[in-house]
Amino acid sequence: MKAAPVPPTAAEVLDAGIGAEASGLGHRASTGLDTRHGTILSLEGIEVSFDGFKALRHLNLYIGVGELRCIIGPNGAGKTTMMDVITGKTRPDRGSAWFGETLDLTRLQPVEIAQAGIGRKFQKPTVFEALTVWENLELAQRTDKSVWASLRARLSGEQRDRLEEVLTTIRLQESRGRTAGLLSHGQKQFLEIGMLLVQEPQLLLLDEPVAGMTDAETEFTAELFKSLVPRHSLMVVEHDMGFVGSIADHVTVLHQGHVLAEGSLDQVQANDQVIEVYLGR
Description:
Elements: H1 10-15, H2 20-23, E1 39-50, E2 53-64, E3 68-72, H3 79-86, E4 94-99, E5 103-104, H4 110-116, E6 118-121, H5 133-140, H6 147-152, H7 157-169, H8 185-197, E7 203-207, H9 215-228, E8 233-237, H10 241-247, E9 250-255, E10 258-263, H11 265-269, H12 272-279
Parallel strand pairs: 3-8, 3-9, 6-7, 7-8
Antiparallel strand pairs: 1-2, 1-4, 4-5, 9-10
Helix pairs in contact: 5-8
């Protein structure tokens, strides 16, 4: 009988090129963000075109400090492109994007934006599947050391306490020694959120976080997100309207690259234009 393949070690994972620069991990977040006017993110007049197609059209959006904002809208509305602009993956053709009062996101590289305090979670979980839950969190621990050095370095008591706190927050205490590849889809989602939290970002961008989750996992995700404010600001892109209704005080609807409507969920659900292009009757 052919032997089962042996998962790569932590060292082999890193030697394969999955290091700090590739993963966005191992960077110290900025602690001096200027938010004196109460706004953590300002997008003004953002325009992005791809081969003549306008993905974003004079987009204006403002997120307050400690706010949990939900972004909804049909496929192709520009939600992913907007997050790409915020994280430096896409440069806008026109407009400005400010993190706090002084950081111009259009002039920063993606790693610099992560260092400044913006964390992004994609729809598909991106964890180190060959490593344990604890090792994933340890790699994500914000530090000035290289990722390789962080694996060999002994955690301080404060760092260990922080990892324990995050494990409790994401309810994976009992799975700390389990290989991440053996986790359920929902648990992988929670682990990736935990990997962001140990870096202590001030703004979290979360793309369809409950897609593929069970009802119980979705309910816990709602509790988790609400517990993160006001320590963090959250931007959540989601299609599950029940989930949106359980977490959001303020909802923004995107359509054809611009803001179609904003307000409470009840307000946007009653908007005739939103009903026409997204919700249906």
